[in-house]
Amino acid sequence: MSGTLFVVGTPIGNLGDLSPRARECLASVNLVIAEDTRVFGRLCHLVDLRPHLVRGYQGRLRITDAEFSTALEEGDVALVSDAGMPGVSDPGAAYVALALAQGAKVSPVPGPSVLSAALALWPQDLSAACFYGFLPRHGQERKAMVERLMAAPAVGVFLESPKRLGETLAELAAIDGDRYALLLGELTKLHESIRWMTLAQAHVWLMTVDVKGEWAVAIDRSRTPAPSAKASEPLLAALARSSLGTKEAATIYAEARGIAIREAYQLMVARRSDGDEPS
């Protein structure tokens, strides 16, 4: 019989956020798979833990799938990321999938999460939210993600590095500078910063401060939702019959609908294969 894979939350800043149950779990399992053994090793040293520790994600010495399966057959295993909950914008999903495929039990040991902290601090009624993780750095993938974020009828939460935060907020402010945002920097740490302002104000404020550490940003929902698929049907048909190339037509349709270009391209290909060829 296989052991249990425990998915364990670790502090996002303040070490006091490591729960007693998490500490007990990490001390009792046969093996801990860490995102980075050096980062997690420092936490272990500070809280007096001495687990059997292996690297899970990068480098020549990372644990293999076969080694993971064997370890899980022999006893309990814990999965941790550098900070927060594994799988929430951090590595982890692959090992959960392997454990489930093996028929092993998977159990969470809930802990700190930037996402839950950001939503808990949102100062308005919250009916829906969407988590985007780190935005793509450039190209069409980034353009499509930004469009989805700003067109979504739900609060959007994303993460950003200090080097790119100013550039990203300037990009969002150019789309809708009056949209409100919650900026959360260095959460639970000594220099924690929480700011509620419009995107235009945030862009100006960031030019006056020295930004450090990873930031989370929550953006208010779009007040003018993108048209539905049904409402956009005439546009899809017209673009499919046009002389535009499929990619160009799909890009226009994606921007109008606020959807990913890949999805729009598939819709355009399907429509044209059904008989709506360019005229």
Q: Which blocks of ≥5 consecutive residues have pLDDT under 50?
A: none
Quick one: overall form?
globular
SSE run: EHEHEHEHEHEHEHEEHEHHH
In round numbers, the mean pLDDT is 90
Can you tell me the CATH topology of the largest domain? Cobalt-precorrin-4 Transmethylase, domain 1
Write out the CATH superfamily name of the largest domain.
Answer: Tetrapyrrole methylase, N-terminal domain
The CATH architecture of the largest domain can be named as 3-Layer(aba) Sandwich
CATH first level of the largest domain: Alpha Beta
The fraction of residues in strands falls at 15-25%
Biggest sheet character: 5 strands, parallel
Alpha-beta classification: alpha/beta
Number of domains: 3
Query: Radius of gyration in whole Å, from Cα?
Result: 23 Å
Q: Measure the end-to-end span.
A: 64 Å
Residue share in helix: 40-55%
Quickly count the helices: 11
Total strands: 10
Identify the strand order in the major beta sheet.
3-2-4-1-5
Walk me through this protein's architecture.
The protein is of the alpha/beta class and about 280 residues long. The protein has three domains: about 5-110, 3-Layer(aba) Sandwich (Cobalt-precorrin-4 Transmethylase, domain 1), CATH 3.40.1010; about 115-220, Tetrapyrrole methylase, C-terminal domain (Methyltransferase, Cobalt-precorrin-4 Transmethylase, Domain 2), CATH 3.30.950.10; about 235-275. It contains eleven helices and ten strands. A five-stranded parallel beta sheet has the order 3-2-4-1-5, with helices on both faces. It has a five-stranded mixed beta sheet with strand order 6-7-10-8-9, with helices on both faces. The model has no long low-confidence stretch (mean pLDDT about 90).
